[in-house]
Amino acid sequence: MKRITLLFALVLLITLIGITGCGKKKPTLYIFNWSDYIDPGLITEFEDANDCKVKYSTFDSNENMLTKVKSSVQSFDIIFPSGDHVSILNELGLLEELDMAKLPNSSNLSPQLLAKARSFDPENKLSIPYAWGLTGLMYNKKFVPQEIVASGGWNILGDSFFEGKNKITMLDDAREVIGAALIFSGYSVNDTTPEALAAAHEVLKIWDRNITQFDSDSYKNELQDGTTWLAQAYNGDALQQMNENPDLDFILPKEGAAMWMDNIVMLRNSQNKDLAYKFIDFMLDKDVSKRNSEYIMYPTPNKAAMAIMDEEFINNKIINPDEEYLDKCYMLDYLGEDIRDIDKIYEDIKMN
Ligand code: SPD
Fold first, then answer.
1. Quick check: CB of 172 below 6 Å from ligand 1?
2. Ligand 1 contact via 80 beta carbon (within 6 Å)
3. What is the pLDDT of residues 245-258, one digit of tens each?
4. Are residues 235 and 276 in the same domain?
């Protein structure tokens, strides 16, 4: 008799849960983005407004992102690759073609930056430009004397002041490392001719005497505590650190810099496409985009957001350098098979 009552209670409970929706699992959106690249308050706001859960994970290089995405294609709904990797993900057949009717806020995007994005997404239908930036050198003024950085060029990486000190890092990113050496040697970051790559290789052999590690994340803390004195760094990441520590500074090298645009894409295998569209459109809202840009310290391709941005942000020359400087910068383009030549040099430098 007791057993029948217990069974009855259980059935009643299950029925009640079904009717009231209590215990119903909230829809979950899986997002994979660069580290330190979103205002976390926005994620909470999106969750509250849409009664959903966001599972947010981060990566610190396009290469790591690609390895993870390839090995677990059903793990993410939305990811944030750089332009060249939008092409790579598309070649692998992993991207969902976006339905712009579901993204009304996409009209906020800058036509000029959409035109730039056509170099990796020819019809602007696979990716939504999210942020763009430049790569330069961040250093700690407590350890690096002004005369060492006074030249203002990439040659600082090879300065004899650093010899034997093990105090310089470069990004763990083949395109950025070889790109810096190419620019210093007078070539574009996309030049893969044998002469250009040979020149970059020779320069890197010299710089490598001072380089302790190739790393895209821990250098941020290491620059604070003096473990690292000078590091190749993304401009917005540098500004985030400089806000916390006045001893840190950043230069955009005089020869020019690599420029890149990161984007939001939806994976074809996404299990939550409606929610993914809602999230992308939320990030495209001009007020949300402004808040996010001011938090991450990178300029946004959202023209409507840029129009309402605080003066301080607009006038910051690390965020918004003059046209004259931008003319010396090169967007990291998709290189197809030629990437192998870049990877070969990068591996050689890392191994020796
Ligand atoms: N913390 C965010 C860094 C974003 C850098 N993205 C672009 C890298 C291109 N090599």
1. no
2. no
3. 999 999 999 999 99
4. no
Q: Ligand 1 centroid vs 47 CA: distance in angstroms?
A: 25
Which residue's C-alpha comes closest to atom 4 of ligand 1?
34
Task: Collect the ranges in the chain with pLDDT lower than 70.
Answer: 1-23, 73
Q: Is 37 in the pocket of ligand 1 (CB under 6 A)?
A: yes
Distance 241 CA to ligand 1 centre (A): 15
Distance 258 CA to ligand 1 centre (A): 11
Which residue minimizes the CA distance to atom 5 of ligand 1? 234
Q: Is residue 247 included in any domain, yes or no?
A: yes
In this structure, the answer to whether residues 226 and 347 fall within a common structural domain is yes
The parent domain of residue 189 ranges over 133-259+330-351
In this prediction the pTM is 0.91
Is 100 part of any domain? Answer: yes
- Give the long-range contacts of residues 104-112, CB within 8 A, separation 24 or more: 104/281, 105/281, 105/284, 105/285, 105/286, 106/281, 106/284, 108/284, 108/285, 108/286, 108/289, 108/302, 108/303, 108/304, 108/305, 109/284, 109/301, 109/302, 109/303, 110/301, 110/302, 110/303, 110/306, 111/303
Whether residue 253 is found in the same domain as residue 270: no
Structural domain includes residue 12: no
